[in-house]
Amino acid sequence: MFKKILIANRGEIACRVIATARKMGIATVAVYSEADKEARHVQLADEAVLLGPAPSRESYLVADKIIAAAKQTGAEAIHPGYGFLSENEEFAARCEKEGIAFIGPKAHSIAAMGDKIASKKLANEAKVNTIPGYNDAIETPEKAVEIAKGIGYPVMIKASAGGGGKGLRVAFNDKEAFEGFSSCRNEARNSFGDDRVFIEKYVLEPRHIEIQILGDSHGNVVYLNERECSIQRRHQKVIEEAPSPFISDATRKAMGEQAVALAKAVKYQSAGTVEFVVGKDQDFYFLEMNTRLQVEHPVTECITGLDLVELMIRVAAGEKLPITQADVKREGWAIECRINAEDPFRNFLPSTGRLVKYQPPAAALVQGVETLQGVAYAGEAFGGVRVDTGVYEGGEISIHYDPMIAKLIAHGQTREAALQVMRGALAQTSVLGVTSNREFLQALLTDPRVRANEVNTEFIDTRLANHQAQPVLPAEVAALLAVWLVQGRRPMTDPGRSHVDALGAWQDAGLTGWRLRRADTLPAITWQASGTAGAWRVGFGGVMNDAQQVRVDDQMFQVVVPEIDGRDSSSPWLSVNVDGRAVRLRASVREAHISADLGARSLALDLQALRSRSMGGGDGTRDKMRAPMMGLIIAVHVKEGDMVQAGQRLATMESMKMEMTISAPVTGRVSWVGCADKDKVERHQELFRIEAVQD
Question: Considering 241, 288, 439, 476, which one is annotated as catalytic?
């Protein structure tokens, strides 16, 4: 067995591998970029080696630096985690050439399955069900439209080297096929260095169900049942569970056997996942094979009692699999939620910044999995909560990497029990400093259609489109209320003192420039705030039936607030009631930033940005385009003096591995350009001005 391994990754997966290595008595080496020098995986490892600057192409994606780090530290093997170089056949081959074991499949298997065009042909040869499509690289958008029309809409346009939702578009007509091809190709080139694109039929009402397989160097391959990953957003998984509540035992067996046949066809060693799209009649078709450990592997570990990372290490060391197909168990139900730094109320744009507060739920399950069963939780015979995370309170959520804060995994005797455990885990989780998707996850898990398993991969994009409606209170008003209560440290029913204290806290935060001012036209106090959705008159009136009146413009809310006991906590929780709806909140003001946790919703507000936006004026003929998030400008497509049409691309930017387009909201002339290629921009930073053309 290896004495020391290097983990060529970061974040929660690096921490996850370290946990198993420690259990096995194996020393670990972390690698890190300049942005990650204080990262959790660096702190947990026995040794750490700096790779280079923050961009992954200069650090985590540089094979030479990782090989050098392994040699420098005497690491005998490298675990690549997922993402980065985990499915790079050249890196796997290079490791073996240098005498370093690659804890993953052999290079020839990665090459065969990593190329989606080649893998589909191999799947056909192995008699695995495949989707109708065009399996060769397509060169032009015109050709893509021609092929799509021949297959019949809707179609999926996919990058051959894609994965994780990157380099994938769904097209329902010629226009979407034309534009989707170009966008998909650009994204694939930037993300994977391979711009080959192909097209296949899109299955209506599809479910995404995948089979976990394990192979060794002795010709043994087993499948560890399935995971259902149908609840997705932008083709990226949001909630995963095992087993699938949809397929029958007969379908499960057929899918598993086809997955094993494909793995044997490429002499697969290590952990891997064969992904299928499943129609409403349980017909299933091969999508792709991921030749690595999956993000959602913990749900399989929960129901089988196996440690996949340990098995990967043992296979890489030449050991035989310790189990046969007959030994594979399926006990209980497991569900995983990914808590990401993103704002569901702003089309899930990434949120970056410092984690002012991070409090995960108490974990009864552990990374390393050996104690999964027999753990008491909520009165169940087995089950509990597992937390896989790579962050810590006070750390930074960077623009350079993915937005994941943590994975919560719930294990219960039944699906409903696991859902109940997960809902409790989400309620116990607190995130301050960045906006998270926690409330969105809670909404999903309480949705009756999710509980009844009436979902498919289009569920979020279609049936939950209205989730982005405004919450009970506008975001800024909710944060205003939170800071007023928490920072004021006085009962809300105090007829004046708490208002003065709270106003002082706002002034300390530089909010006088946020056009927050006092008026005497309403009882007690009225503030006028200019924010992202316009300006509000926010009035805190007198007490009526034990409720404080909060007026937002012409709408009145009744807020019941208990007495504050003066606890010496910087962010005490307060339980309030807004129009009969219970809300727990806490908040903090640091410089010009506000962080408010409203129990089910976390808010992170940059008040300087709000102030600059609210103070903006003009004669109405200029429209200012601002960056929707912190990120990197990939390309600027216009220059000063250009005439543009409404909807025309102005710039392309990237943040947390997500590419998006800044488009012109009106037809007019570009009067000012405030960014250039490779510029790092802040959220709300002004990028363009357009002088609108009057109709």
Answer: 288
